[in-house]
Amino acid sequence: MQDTVANLLVRYLEQRGIRYVFGLCGHTNIAVLSAMAESNVEFINVRHEQIAAHAADGYARASGKTSVLLTHLGPGLTNAATGVANAALDCIPMVVIAGDVPSHYYGKHPHQEINLHADGAQWEIYRPFVKRAWRVDSPKLFPEIIEKAFALAESGQPGPVLVDVPMDVFSAVIDDALFARLRANAHLLRKPSIDQASAGEIIKHLATASHPVIYAGGGMILARAWDELRGLAEHLTIPVAHSLMGKGVLPDDHPLVLGMTGFWGTSLVNQTCLAADWVLGVGTRFKEADCSSWYRDYTFNIPPTKLIHIDIEPSEIGRNFPTEIGVVADLKQALGTLLKVARELYPAGRQEPQIVQRIADFRRAFAAENSVNQRSDAFPMMPERILAELRVLLPRDAIMTTDVGWNKNGVGQQFPIYTPGSVLTCGGFATMGFGPPAAIGAKLACPDKVVVSLVGDGGFGQNPAALATAAEHNLAIIWLVMNNNAYGTIAGLQQAAYGVTYGTLFPASRGGWAEQPPNYADIAKAYGCMGERLTSAAELRPALRRALASGRPYVLDVPMKNNPTPTTGHWNILDIYSPDRHLEHAATG
Question: Which of these, 323, 331, 456, 557, could form a disulfide with 225 (CB 3.0-4.6 Å)?
C-alpha cells in the first residue's frame, strides 16, 4: 500500500507509543498536523516554539521517554533552538521534526528560508548542540532516517536529534513497506555494563578507604539507577553527595545523603568531599558550579583524592579531573554489578556509624540556622519561608520544575526532595523560562501527580504564554512566582563586584507591591487560569491550599526579598570581575 510520508510518519509514532507531539503550526508542517487529526497522537499546541521545546523536555524528564517536537522552518526552528539546546546540555532524549522549504526551491530563497551562506541548510543551525542533524533529501530515505533518529536520541548519552524535512517530502507518496520493514528492529538496545574484575577492584578500593564518597550526577536520574545506588551506599555505608542535576537521586532525608556540592553547596558536603580519599563519580560531568570552578580547597582536591568515574559517555571521563579508574557503562547495570560484587566480597558490609551521626548533626544545625527566616513574617517574604511552606503542603512525590535563580539554587541547597526524579531543573544551559513550560510536559506525563513550577519573576516573564496551553488542557499546575522584581542573582553579582545594579532591577511602583506591575495573578486570569497576588506572608499557606484543591492551573504571585542564596563554595566569575577582592553575592534590597 502507498501513502504520504506524513500519514506514515504519524502511524509510525503511534506504533512507537508516542502519545504527544509538542509544537506550533507552519505552512511546512501542516501535512503532519492533518495526519494527526484522526490519530491517537495528540498535538500539544503552544503560542511560542520555545514553550513547545521546554514542554517536550519536561515530558521526557518526567516520563523517562523520548519526546517529539514538531516545528516550522526559519523562525520556528530558531524560536525552538533555546529549548532544544537546554535539553541537549542536560542529555534529554528528544526527536525534533522540522519542516523546510520545498526541495525544488533550493537556491531561489523561498519564503522564510535562512540561506545567506548556503541553500537548503537550515538544519546546520542545530549542529552545535544536537547529537545529529539530518536533512531528508529523498522521501524513500525518510523511514530509515526517523528510525535512526529515535535510536540515536535514546542510546548512549541521550540527547536531541533533528530531522529536517522539505515540505514536499511530507506530501510525497511512498510504499508503506519501507516503514513496515523497520518493525523488525529492536527498539530497546542492550547497554554495556562493567566486568566482574573491574567491579571487584572498585569495591575493594571503596571498602578499604578511610573516607570514601559517592558523587552522583544527573546521569543517575536519566538511568533510573537510584535503587542500585541506595543499595550500594547502604551496604558500604558510604555518604552520597550529588550535583545540582543529581538532586533527588536518593531522598534528601536518607541518612547517607550529604547534599549538593559546589558554589551553592553546604559546608558539610564540600568539606566531606575535600576530605575524601576515594570518590566514586557516577553519571556526572563535574560541572563548574558543582565543583566551585574546579578551584582547589573548596569542593574537590583531585588529586590527592583518587577518582573512580563511571559514565555512559567516554568523553566525560577525565574531562575535568584526573581519573584513577574510568569505566564506560550503563549506570543502572554498573551500579547493580557493583552492589552484587560488594555483597559477595563483604557480606557484612562496611560499618561507619560516625558519618551517619555527622550528617544528622549537621542537618539539625543547618535547620536551626534557617529557622528564623523560615518563620519570618517579613514582607516581601523571605525565600526560606516560601520554600518551607511549600514543602509542608506538597506530597512526597510531587513533581517540581525550577527555573533560574533562588528557585533553583535554593531548592538545590535546602528544599528536600523525597522521590527520585521528581525535581526537573535546567542545569547546563540554565535557561530562564524553562520551568513554566516544563511543568506542562511533566503534568501530561504524570497527570495524577501534583506539579508545581517554582520560578522567579524574570523566568516567568520569559514564557507566560505557557498558561494558555495549560488552560486549554485544564492542567492543574501551580506556578509559584518568587517575585523580587529583579534578575536577582545577577543583581547580587553586579552589586558585589561593581556596587551598582544597573540593568538588573525592574522599576519599583510608587504604590508599593499592591500596584507593582506586572501583576502575574491578573495575567493568569487573562489566560483563563486562576491567580492570586499575596499581600502578607501569612497568606501563603492558605493560598497554596486553595491552589492545590482547585484542580485548575493556578498562579501565585509571591513578593520576595532579594536575598542571596548562602554559599560555601566558590564561583570564579567573582575573581574575574574583582581579582583583587574576595567577594560573594550581595543582597540588593
Answer: 331
Q: Taking each helix axis from N to C terminus, what angle separates 353-375 and 267-275, rounded to the nearest 10 degrees?
A: 160
Residues 6+ apart with CB under 8 A from 272: 211, 213, 239, 241, 258
SS (H, E, C) 121-167: CHHHHHCCCCCCEEECCCHHHHHHHHHHHHHHHHCCCCCEEEEEEEH
Cis previous bond, 447, omega within 30:
no
CA atoms of 262 and 567, how far apart (whole Å): 9
Q: Looking at the DSSP assignment, which residues form a beta bridge with residue 174?
A: 3
Tell which residue, 360, 361, 363, 388, has the closest CA to residue 373.
Answer: 388
Phi, psi of 186 (to 5 degrees): -75, 125
**Cβ count within 10 A of residue 370:** 18
3-state helix, strand, coil in the chain (%, to 5): 45, 15, 40
Cell numbers linked to 232: 550500594
Dihedral (C-alpha) 387, 392, 393, 399: value to the nearest 10 degrees?
60
Question: Does the global pTM surpass 0.85?
Answer: yes
Is residue 281 within 8 Å of 274, Cβ to Cβ? Answer: no
Q: Consecutive 10-residue runs of the chain (589 residues): their mean pLDDT?
A: 96 96 97 96 98 98 98 96 98 98 87 85 95 97 97 96 97 94 83 94 97 97 97 98 97 97 94 98 95 94 98 95 97 97 96 93 92 94 96 97 90 94 94 97 98 96 96 98 91 86 90 91 98 97 98 97 81 78 67
Grid cell 507593582 is found at 516
Task: Return the H-helix or E-strand segment holding 70.
Answer: strand 67-71
The C-alpha cell that represents 490 in the structure block: 545577577
- C-alpha atoms less than 13 angstroms from C-alpha of 376 in its C-beta half-sphere: 18
The C-alpha cell that represents 150 in the structure block: 529515535
Which residue intervals of 520-572 are DSSP H helices?
520-526, 540-550
- CA–CA dist 70, 87 (Å, integer): 15
Which residue in this structure is represented by grid cell 533555546? Answer: 82
Phi-psi region of 248 (alpha: psi -120 to 50; beta: other; left: phi over 0): left
Distance CA 230, CA 253 (A): 13
User: How many CB atoms within 10 Å of residue 340?
Assistant: 16
Please enumerate, as own/partner, the contacts of 170-173 that have beta carbons within 8 Å and a separation of 24 or more. 170/4, 170/5, 170/6, 170/9, 170/28, 170/29, 170/31, 170/32, 170/99, 171/4, 171/5, 171/6, 171/31, 172/4, 172/5, 172/139, 173/2, 173/3, 173/4, 173/5, 173/139
The rounded radius of gyration (Å) of the Cα atoms in the chain is: 25
Q: Which helix (H) or strand (E) holds 393?
A: helix 383-393
- Torsion over CA: 473, 474, 478, 483 (sign): positive
Burial 386-413 (b: 16+ CB within 10 A, else e): bbbbbbeebeeebbbbbbbbbbbbbbbb
Half-sphere exposure of 319 (CA within 13 A, CB side): 15
First to last CA, the chain: 69
